[in-house]
Amino acid sequence: MRELPVVGSPPVERADAALNRRRIIRAAAEMIATRGPEAVSMDEVARAAGVGVGTVYRRFGDRARLVYAVIDERERDFQAAFIQGPPPLGPGADPSDRLRAFLHALADRTEAQADLLLMAESGPSDARFRDGSYGLYHRHLALLLSEIRPAADTAYLADALLAPFAANLFLYQRRTRGMPLARIKTGLDALADSLITNRPRA
């Protein structure tokens, strides 16, 4: 498999811009920690960070992108684990084992910050897909699937495997339906196994 780049790292910035970025993210993170993610507003974050609201909008564009910036550190750790970490999540394992390990790890990742992900995905209808992480997940799954089922429509199947991780669906299953995380992982295994079991012979 080709090695994929970790996305979500901040671009090279001037010192003053980097300082403002850290102030804004720290203010947003503290606001989320003390008042919940629903408390995040661009105006309040700007005041708490000691910068103009225009600076916040220029740097992040909208609230969804600001929330994604808050979750970037955990996201970068997750990406490094499946791109460069030890198997079975990282390279070196059978693609079928890596597929299952990735789905389980993404379930844990979503569980840890589901409320923030829900807020980030509540912007424009394509907010979830505009984030670079979705594209990276999709490419990673498509590469694994191309080894498991070379003749399959891997682009479609990658989207299908990522669909259960939409934050609104994930939270509905966890909180409204009361599904334990273990049950969700069992369902993900069933999806993966349906692709792995029916893999064509070489």
TrEMBL record:
Pfam families, per database record: TetR_N
Gene Ontology MF annotations: DNA-binding transcription factor activity; transcription cis-regulatory region binding
Highest taxon of source: Bacteria
Keyword terms, alphabetized: DNA-binding
Domain (HTH tetR-type): residue spans on this chain: 18-78
Protein name in UniProt: TetR/AcrR family transcriptional regulator
InterPro entries: Homeodomain-like_sf, HTH-type_TetR-like_transc_reg, HTH_TetR
DNA-binding region: 41-60
